[in-house]
Every structure is written in structure tokens, then in C-alpha cells.
Write a structure and sequence with these properties.
It is a single chain. This protein is α/β, with parallel strands linked by helices and 338 residues long. The protein has ten helices and 15 strands. The strands form two sheets. A nine-stranded mixed beta sheet has the order 14-13-12-11-7-10-9-8-15. A hairpin with a 6-residue loop joins strand 13 and strand 14. Helix 1 crosses helix 9. The longest helix is centred in the last third of the chain and has 19 residues.
Length: 338
């Protein structure tokens, strides 16, 4: 029997990614869409048949609480503005709904820690599980690259380069670095693997563009517990161009992810090898399908665990802290909490 699911949110990413992914997942049935206004919820639902609309209209009994009371809805996908998501996550889990919430785990580490501590202490994941939708961990290109890296011996060095010239941003802590840059942290952590956890960071930060507060550019050095160092360079306010790249150099060659392609350079090989992934999209279809299978089977989905999302946020906050302190190296003690 298919899992009844509701989508909480009605933004562009919901309409472009979450809705199509749910509709393509055979073991999910879309039951409802919630948004703050009736118009935005109706717009997201469009012409989809059998989908009920919930919103924050006064006294009409069609708000979020009413949606959570429905027994035919066993799971929710939450994609709301970052600052308000934690309260929606908590209410859904208390209502015994399985949750897939959009990254990042929370707006800051203090909120994330409180939510994660509460979840591990109070909620039975068998009846109400929580996953964080970090779609870079569901991109086939990153998974393929990770397997190639494992074939090439010890990691020697790495680098991340992400450049964009964004026209708008967000004013809360981290700005676009929190909303978008968290993907790049997750992607490189996946490539480095558990054998190379981040141990220390040193960073310089800046706000290059006045419309991209509070920080739009970050250049950092990471050091892993294994002693490997690498660079993490990202800017949303630059005219530097080129595809985003995530490269790991190993004893027997290097592997580079460039969004929809992976370039493998093996030591001694006459030429590099490129493997394309033209159909992977943003990884949301696979992410939602894997989540649905895990919910159906009553199993954990480690790569989308809130613990992994928490570690991504630790790395980001420590880099921002280092930047505020003029590049002072910062240790990653909180990575060992979960």
C-alpha cells in the first residue's frame, strides 16, 4: 500500500523538484499540499487530482495542525524558509509523521543541536523518522566519483571551486553560503568519506556585493584528521566563471566532479576518462524514491540522516567563525557529538 504524503511548502523548488519526484515515486501517494496562503497552495497543486489544499486561513480548520491529524497521511516533505522549518519538523514528528526536511538542518548550530537532541531523546524513529534532504548526496555523479576515489589509494589533496554572480540573496546568518553553499560542503564530505573527517578549518570571508549580505565569498583551508589538507573556495558575488568542481587527488590519480560529469585521471593512463550523467537532474527524484523505500521498510537512510546534515552545518559555521576572526584556525570538536 502506497504511503500517503503531504508537501509542506509551495516554492519554486517544490514545484520544479519535489512535486514531480513524488508523482514519479510509485510507493508514494500525494494527499495534500500546505502553504501559508490559499493561493500559493492552490498554485502548487495546479491540476493534480485528489490533492487537498491546506493554508493558514483564519478559523477554517485547514491549517497545518488539521493536516497532521489526518491518518491517511503518514509522511511529509517540508520545504519552507530556513528560519521557520524546525517548528514544522517538530510538530510533524510529534504527530508520528515521517519527515523529509529540506537542507540545511537549521539556521544555526544551536537550533540544530536542540532539535537533534530532542529528536534522539523523545522520538521513536520506527514510528516517526527524520531525514534531511541534502540532494548532493543523491547525485549519481558524486556517488560514482566516491567509488572511483576508493580505487585510487590514499587521498593526498583536494579542492572545491564554486563561482556565481547571484542577483539576490538572504540576510540571515550565512546568506547564500548557508542556503546553497551547504551543498558544496556535503558534496566534498561525501567524496572524502568517513576515513577523512574534517578536523580543522581556517577561512577568510567577505561581502563583495552589497545586495548579498552578510557574506557572499569564502576561501578556506580544510585539514582532515588523517592530516590531508585542501581548499574550499566559493563565491556568489564574483565574475569568475567556469563549472563548479570538486576534485580529490589520490596516490594513483585524481577524480573531479563537474556537476553532470566525472573526470578520472589515472596515473600512467594515456588520457583522462570522462563519464557523463545527463539524466541525474538535481538528484531529488532519487532522493525522494530512496526515502520512500526506507520509510516503507522501516529502515534508516544514513546518507540523509540529520546527524550528517548537522556535521555539514558545523563545518560551515566554523569557517564563518574563522573568517570573522581573521582566519584563525578553528577545531571541529562538535563533529564528534553524533
Amino acid at each position: 500500500m502506497a504511503i500517503g504524503v503531504a508537501i509542506i511548502g509551495s516554492g519554486i523548488f517544490v514545484k520544479d523538484e519535489h512535486l514531480p519526484a513524488v508523482l514519479k515515486t510509485p510507493n508514494l501517494t500525494l494527499k495534500a499540499i500546505y502553504s501559508r496562503s490559499e493561493a500559493s497552495a492552490a498554485d502548487a497543486a495546479g491540476e493534480i487530482e485528489g490533492v487537498d489544499i491546506y493554508h493558514d486561513g483564519l478559523g477554517d480548520g485547514r491549517g497545518y495542525h488539521a493536516l497532521l491529524l489526518r491518518e491517511d497521511i503518514q509522511a511529509v516533505i517540508i520545504a519552507l524558509p530556513i528560519p521557520i522549518q524546525p517548528s514544522f519538523i517538530e510538530k510533524a514528528l510529534l504527530a508520528n509523521k515521517h519527515v523529509l526536511s529540506e537542507k540545511p538542518i537549521a539556521m544555526n548550530l544551536s537550533t540544530a543541536a536542540m532539535l537533534l537532541n530532542w529528536y534522539t531523546a523523545k522520538i521513536n524513529p520506527k514510528s516517526a523518522s527524520w531525514c534531511v534532504a541534502e540532494n548532493f548526496r543523491s547525485l549519481d555523479s558524486f556517488e560514482y566519483a566516491r567509488q572511483e576515489i576508493l580505487k585510487m589509494g590514499r587521498v593526498l589533496h583536494f579542492r572545491v571551486e564554486v563561482f556565481a554572480n547571484a542577483k539576490r540573496g538572504w540576510k540571515y546568518l550565512g546568506g547564500l553560503l548557508l542556503d546553497s553553499g551547504i551543498h558544496d560542503i556535503a558534496g566534498m564530505r561525501l567524496l572524502l568519506g568517513p576515513e577523512n573527517p574534517i578536523d580543522r578549518v581556517s577561512a577568510f570571508t567577505a561581502q563583495i556585493r552589497p545586495h548579498l549580505p552578510p557574506t557572499d565569498t569564502l576561501d578556506a583551508i580544510w585539514k582532515t584528521k588523517s592530516g590531508v589538507t585542501g581548499t574550499f573556495s566559493i563565491s556568489f558575488g564574483t565574475t569568475l566563471a567556469g563549472p563548479s568542481s570538486y576534485t580529490v587527488g589520490c596516490e594513483q590519480g585524481s577524480v573531479s566532479v563537474r556537476r553532470d560529469a566525472v573526470v578520472v585521471r589515472a596515473e600512467g593512463a594515456p588520457e583522462e576518462r570522462t563519464v557523463a550523467f545527463p539524466a541525474q537532474g538535481w538528484g531529488v527524484e532519487r532522493e525522494v524514491a530512496d526515502w520512500a523505500r526506507a520509510v516503507e521498510a522501516g529502515e534508516r537512510l544514513p546518507r540523509l540522516s540529520p546527524e550528517e546534515a548537522y556535521k555539514d552545518l558545523v563545518v560551515l559555521e566554523r569557517m564563518l567563525e574563522s573568517g570573522e576572526r581573521g582566519g584563525v584556525p578553528i577545531d571541529m570538536q562538535q563533529l564528534d557529538m553524533w
